[in-house]
Give the backbone structure.
Amino acid sequence: MAISIPWGWCVQMSESWPPEQVSLTPGKRVLFLTKDLDLIRKQLYDGLDLKMSDLSVDDLLDDINTDVMTPAWVCFDHDPAVIAENAYAGLLYKGERVFGPLALKEGGFEVIVSGHRKGTGSSRETASQCERWSGIRTVIAASFAPIHERNNINLGQLMGDYEMLVRLQDGESIPLAEFTSKYDPVTRLILENGGIFQFAKKMESGQITLPESSTDERPMTMVEKMIANKLLGQNGSARFVKPHDAVLAAVDGGYSHEYTTAQVHTFLGQEYGADYQLPNPAKFAVFEDHLLYATGVPRYGPFVEKIQTLRDMQVLFQRHTGVRDYSAVDGVSPGICHQVAREEFIDVGDFIQATDSHTCMGGASNALTYGVGATEYANLVYNQFAFVNVPESIRFEFIGTLDPGCTAKDIILHILWKHAKHSDTLDRSMEFGGPGLASLSMDERATLCNMATECSAKTGICEPDELTVSWLLKRRSNLTADDIRAAFVLPDEDAHYDGGVHTIDLTEIRPMVAHPGDPDQGVPSDPTNGAYISDLGEVKIDIAYAGSCTAGKDDDFAYYAMVTQAALDANLTVAEGVECYIQFGSKAVKDLSAQMGWTALFERAGVKLIDPGCGACIGAGPGISDDAEQVTVSAINRNFQGRSGPGRLYLASPLTVMASAFTGRITAWHPSLFN
């Protein structure tokens, strides 16, 4: 396997940045990402220059997701300079790219401006890299999604507000401290030293001394307790943290997948030499799950060699470091990383970080888990600790039980619609508890935590109970029930929640979808676009897609089987003109399906089954749409425009997806549906 590793292509990150005084460079430009996409084109191609003083916040584009900044196919390149050539390739107007190749890179821009919640969606660091390697050094937005903001910090990208931009455009020079003062002391040091690698090296050499963190005894939330339990230098003594404390915490493990491992390997070689070694590789893993089916997608045909390079580089990394290997065997993956990780090695109280935004799925097991970018992961896998800014928390207290037509997916769609849309969950830990939580299985809790990312939250965590114990006991031969209970992390009764405590009566949850939005009219395709199915009217479908990490678990398959059995009993098969796909989340789920007779049931009904792995969810496998007129109802977690093909995608529960497959239109499930 002969692969040339470009150990030096990150060298430009080590230039002298940032300066003590920040000003606009003569001849450089400011790019405004406006809701009027034609204005963006005029800036890119006609030389139009705008000023913040002539615009309002409402003019700026909100909810720019990382798929827009770097669509999946752009991520097949692992060299940031090449990635930058297709920056914002996913921003479309009437099906056409707003940003052509090299448009951002050759536009002479050094500042980029947008609206609220910049960088939602996937944790892919390539979104920050595409701006950084296009010459952008300052990013202005009303707010940032937490993982994206952290990726900017790790790359040394300054982030400011609109008032600062007005001053810069008026010719003012702004002290660096104004850009960094809003952050905790550790983050401030990372930014002021040009990024996380430079910071880590200076800390190791003694050039940086971390400020002391000393929070007095106080009631704590679950996330606060978990971080306090992992503080470095604790020496067995009780420690306390509060929101916005900047600390170093020991990680219990992590993982990467073939989309990101190549960058991790290259970054480590560039920063620490080609012979670098990891101090504790057994704590970490690699997964081959994201691109297994990509080469079967026609639009990815031109990228076959790049995809193979990513796979090959992951193999090199695994062999070089000795981390645990979850590679595909004979083309079949052990499963999607988040699902397999919770099945096999995420335990109560663990602190796990990985290069994927849905790492937070592990929070169902009462663990602290969240996604990071390739740079941050490379640093933590090498140094064995993470820099943590303790997040604020928001609590959701469940009471009652769900209607038979609803699942946890309907709960999280409700939260997205009613809370995340208004930024209540932004950068916070979403903690789930209350007496109603006991009515939700471990798999259903995993759905809630998985989609905390769609809420732009830091993570999601569920309170543990006896269901937690029984679920883990079936999967951990080395643990006893007492071991698991002893590790429980529960919030203190009088803990403070900055986002408030919100009671959700599960009896009032109704079957929902997140509709596709209308990006051409400035309404982003987004999971927060909630709607009750009863209010939709008739929406005919072409594709029903079930599975993915969000909906490829044991209980999800039980839902699919229940609806399918009811349809077969009514002499129904998948509706004419509808393609129905179900993808297993892991090999364990696939084996269970076969053992229970579900697999044969699905095949009798005309369902197409897909082996474990990612697929249509990231536009890289069977089940994607192939034209803009197609309508998909899907159990995945995101409905970003173009992510699963050019068609319109509605997010829904596993029950709704399967019911719709048999009726040919978006349909809420109820037990008498086919009677």
Summary: Residues 7-14 have pLDDT under 50 and may be disordered. The radius of gyration is 24 Å. The longest strand covers residues 393-399.
